[in-house]
Amino acid sequence: MKWKYVTPLLLLAALAAAPQFLPRFHTYILAIVLLTGLLATSLNLAIGFGGIYQFHHAVFYGVGAYGTALVLTRTQLPAPVGLMAGPVAAAALSLVMGVICVRLSKLYFGMLQISLGSLVWATVYRWYSFTGGDNGIPGVPVPGWIASSESAYYYTLAVTTLSMLALYRIVGSPFGKVLQGIRDNPVRSDAIGIDVKAHKLTALVIAGFFGGVAGSLFVVIDTSVFPDMMFWTYSLEVLIMCLLGGMYTFFGPLVGSSILVLLRTYVSIHIPYWHLCLGIILTLVIVFLPEGVLGYAARRFRPKEGRLA
Amino acid sequence: MKKFAGILTGFVFACCMAASGVAGDTIKVGLVDTYTGPVTTYTYDVRDGFKMAVDTINAKGGVLGKKIEYVVRDDTFKSDVGLAMAKELILKENVDIIIGTINSATALAISDLCKKEKVPFLVTFSKSGKITGEKGHRYVFNMNENTDMIGRATATVFAKKPYIKYWIAGDDYEYGHAIADSIWNHLKSLNPKVQMIGQSWWKMRETDFNPYITQILAAKPEFVIVATGGGSMVNFQKAAQSTGFNKRVPFYQHTGIELSTLMPQGQNAPEGVFGTANYLFYYPDTNENKSFADDFQKLYGRHPKSGALYGYMTAQFIAKAYGKAGKVDKEKFIDALEGMALDSPIGRLEVRACDHQIVLPMFFGVTKKSPKYEFLVGGDILSVAGKDYMPTCEEIRKERAK
Amino acid sequence: MGLSRTTILFIVSSGLSLILGVLRIPNIAHGSLYMIGAFSAYSVISFLGGGGFAFWAAMVVAPLIVAAIGFVMERGFFSYLYEREHLMLLLLTFSFALIIGDLVKILWGTEYRSITAPGFMQGSAEVFGLPIPYYNLFLLLVGPVIAVFLWLVVNRTKIGKISRAAAVDAEMVSAVGINVGWVFAFTFVLGCFLAGLGGALIAPMTSISLGMDHSLIMEAFLIVIMGGLGNIWGALLGSLIFGLAQSLGILAWPQFGIVFPYLAVVVVLTFRPKGLLRSAW
Question: Given A144, B283, B388, C131, which residue has the most CB atoms within 10 angstroms?
Answer without folding.
Answer: C131
